[in-house]
Design a protein that fits this description.
The complex is a heterodimer. By secondary structure, chain A is mainly alpha-helical. Chain A has a single domain (20-310), classed as ABC transporter involved in vitamin B12 uptake, BtuC, CATH 1.10.3470. Chain A contains 16 helices and two strands. A two-stranded antiparallel sheet of chain A has the order 1-2. Chain A starts with a helix and ends with a helix. The chains are: A mainly alpha, B mainly alpha.
Chain lengths: 358, 361
């Protein structure tokens, strides 16, 4: 009995139970509502490539930016016990730098795109280091520290490019934002896989995960054990910065332009939501990146489902709110405890009855 | 908190608490900023009406900032206030246009009740979820924001203008103070005008100040925000106190919506967009800490006035573009946050040094 309990405690599925159930319910709901929801077809797009189409593909594709940012957000949340609300604004800055750099080069080829990507990663990381310094060195609450860039980041992006919606047009850009010729799967999906795999490798081969969790659980204890909390927090912001840069570039390439008003709009809220739906504590400490990724896809799934049900796009937020409240209520410790007590009582009651009969 | 570290046998004057110090800085900066605007921009800033206009235009912001200060002192956060204002404005505008009663006094009273009711409903729901089900405030109020914004567009996607005569007369009713007015070029005396909304906002600031300072609930909110465990051990009903902060916040958001409608009698899907962040910024500039337990609503009032002054200065200057204003707001916020952090950490060090010195003696 005690063995089973220990396994259950250390088993990783516990945290993922609620998001998995939520995803399952959404999938089942769509199956009963309209089995055609899952149809996947092949179509020829504007540039003559064969691409996969269908709701599922579109969900996985359009959740890419959210999933990438949610991964970084999980790390920051775990290390600092707070969230970065400037990711959307800084992602827009990343897109602006990318476009600005490409406009500076005479031609757009693989080399210049890589250089532009490098430049935008660098700038984004610098901005995130600003946030990270405020949080780690000056000990300001993450939400407050990032409120600065949240309120002026989009203006900085506008200031960088100098016009409302500068466009870039090149086969490489559309390959990055939509599909690579010959591969029917949208490219942003590979972006998610790449970032996820890199993070998984980092966690597998370094002590980053352990250090981040220990800083998040108890900073003082972590310092006494020789971990530098400032460094770990800064590192989490750097990783978030790289994630944001990738997401910003994907978003820019998808649109073929950078619009400082609409690029990655409200993504900070969705990313925090994804982290919370994934069962991670917003107060820091132990975390599961897979939960956050799942959370991101749940949010996108919900949006697509509501759209498929012909809900007016402007009204989606209200329905989304109701589902979110239900999911977080199911994950609430109070409700969980109540249900566990109820379950145990019923089971022990059943056992008594069984022994009585026996 | 740190001021209590001084040993009793040391004869030192009771130094200012952190909150008082931060508030003093905020007021000083507001006065300095307004003074500089008077010197360099002249014109409107020399008239009392300019100050009154700041109050008239930002009455709703001042009220929600007060509500956010209460929640933040209690150690929580509420980002649904902007959404609730938007929903209240839309619902009240539609209600006023559809209502068939001719008695305008009753009409307006019913509208006020509707506004407060919407706020109360959000406050009740969010407070219950946060304090009794122990769900993270950020997520609950984020969902609240989504819900309010979604309901607003469900009510009407198109802008709704209030056509109710009685309400429009209320909108035009202004308190005139003739001795604060100025003489126009043609020799007419133009009295200074203060809208009802601004008076309501000032009353809210005063009431919240008194509540936080003297009422039992106010003291409980500080205690819960400062340290939940200690508050629990002191026998304070922590859950009920946290619940009450969200309830008051919801009510005040509803009131802010009504005040907003009195200033601009039209509902719109984008009313008070992102005003929750402005309200948080005002509270922070006013010296409220997001960690809870520290804050003062007078500081918040001046914080909101600083944001309003920046907006006015940029609107009157040649840099009149929204992105300049956003950048100035960001810079201002950054300045205050750094200032607070530096001051608090310096005081922390000095406090420790003092205690050590006292110990050595």
């Amino acid at each position: 009995m005690s063995m089973i309990k220990r396994v259950r405690k250390s088993g990783g599925l516990g945290q993922l139970l609620i998001p998995l159930v939520a995803m399952g319910i959404l999938l089942l709901f769509n199956l009963f509502r309209d089995p055609g929801f899952y149809a996947i077809g092949v179509a020829v797009n504007n540039s003559g490539n064969r691409v996969l189409t269908g709701n599922i593909i579109s969900i996985i594709d359009s959740a890419s930016e959210l999933a990438i940012i949610a991964m970084g957000m999980t790390l920051v949340t775990a290390a600092c016990g707070g969230q970065d609300i400037s990711v959307g604004a800084v992602g827009t800055i990343a897109g602006s730098i990318f476009v600005k750099a490409l406009k500076g080069f005479s031609s757009i080829n693989l080399g210049t795109v890589l250089l532009a990507l490098l430049a935008c990663c660098l700038v984004t990381v610098l901005f995130k280091l600003f946030n990270g310094t405020l949080v780690s060195v000056f000990r300001i609450q993450p939400m407050i520290a990032t409120l600065i860039l949240f309120s002026c980041g989009r203006s900085i992006a506008y200031w960088i490019v100098g016009s409302a919606t500068p466009q870039i047009d090149s086969p490489i850009i559309s390959a990055m934002g939509m599909t690579i010729p010959g591969i029917p799967i949208p490219t942003p999906i590979f972006g998610v896989i790449l970032v996820g795999a890199l993070l998984a490798l980092i966690f597998r081969f370094t002590t980053l995960r352990l250090y981040t969790e220990s800083v998040g659980v108890n900073e003082g204890a972590a310092r006494l054990n020789g971990i530098n909390p400032i460094l770990i927090k800064l590192l989490s912001f750097v990783i978030l910065g790289l994630c944001v840069a990738v997401a910003g570039v994907i978003g820019t390439c998808r649109m073929g332009q950078v619009s400082h008003k609409t690029l990655l709009i409200d993504i900070e809220m969705d990313a925090i939501l994804a982290v919370a739906i994934g069962g991670n504590s917003l107060g820091g400490g132990r975390f599961k990146i897979s939960g956050s990724i799942l959370g991101a896809y749940i949010i996108q799934m919900l949006t697509t489902t509501l759209l498929a049900m012909r809900v007016d796009p402007v009204n989606i937020k209200a329905y989304k709110a109701v589902v979110i409240i239900i999911i977080v209520m199911a994950g609430s410790p109070v409700v969980k405890n109540r249900l566990t007590t109820l379950w145990n009582r019923r089971r022990s009651g059943g056992l008594h009855a069984a022994s009585g009969r026996g | 908190m740190l001021s209590k570290n001084t040993a009793p046998n040391l004869k030192v004057r009771e130094p200012m608490t952190d909150a008082q110090l931060l508030m003093t800085i905020t007021i000083a900066i507001f006065v300095a900023m307004y003074g500089l605007a008077m010197i360099f921009m002249g014109g409107g800033f020399l008239r009392t009406q300019q100050l009154f206009d700041l109050l008239n235009d930002n009455a709703a912001l001042i009220i929600v900032s007060c509500s956010l200060t209460i929640v933040m002192i209690g150690g929580g956060i509420n980002i649904s206030v902007g959404g609730v204002i938007g929903l209240t404005v839309m619902a009240c505008a539609l209600f006023l246009n559809d209502i068939g009663i001719q008695n305008s006094g009753l009409c307006i009273f019913l509208t006020l009740l509707l506004a407060l009711g919407i706020g109360l409903a959000f406050g009740l729901l969010q407070g219950f979820l946060i304090s009794y089900l122990d769900i993270q405030p950020f997520i609950v109020t984020l969902a609240g924001m989504f819900l309010a914004r979604g309901l607003t567009t469900i009510l009407s996607v198109n802008p709704v203008k209030v056509t109710h005569e009685g309400f429009l007369t209320l909108v035009k009713t202004k308190a005139t103070i003739s001795w604060l007015g100025y003489t126009a070029k043609n020799g007419n005396l133009i009295p200074a005008k203060l809208e009802i909304g601004a008076i309501v906002a000032l009353a809210v600031v005063l009431l919240v100040y008194l509540m936080l300072r003297y009422a039992q609930l106010g003291r409980h909110i500080y205690a819960v925000g400062g340290n939940q465990q200690s508050a629990l051990m002191l026998g304070i009903n922590v859950k009920r106190t946290r619940f009450m902060t969200y309830l008051i916040s919801g009510l005040l958001s509803g009131l802010a919506g009504f005040v907003f409608l009195m200033h601009k009698p039209a509902g719109n899907a984008s009313v008070a967009m992102r005003s929750e962040m402005d309200a948080i910024a005002a509270s922070i500039i006013g010296g409220t800490l997001l960690t809870g337990g520290v804050g003062n609503v007078i500081g918040t009032f001046f914080g909101a006035m600083i944001l309003a002054t920046i907006q006015k200065i940029i609107a009157l200057s040649p840099l009149n573009e929204s992105w300049w204003q956003e950048m100035a707001n960001g810079a201002m916020l950054g300045l205050f946050i750094m200032l607070q952090s530096v001051i608090l950490s310096n005081r922390g060090k000095r406090g420790k040094a003092k205690v050590q010195a006292a110990g050595r003696e």
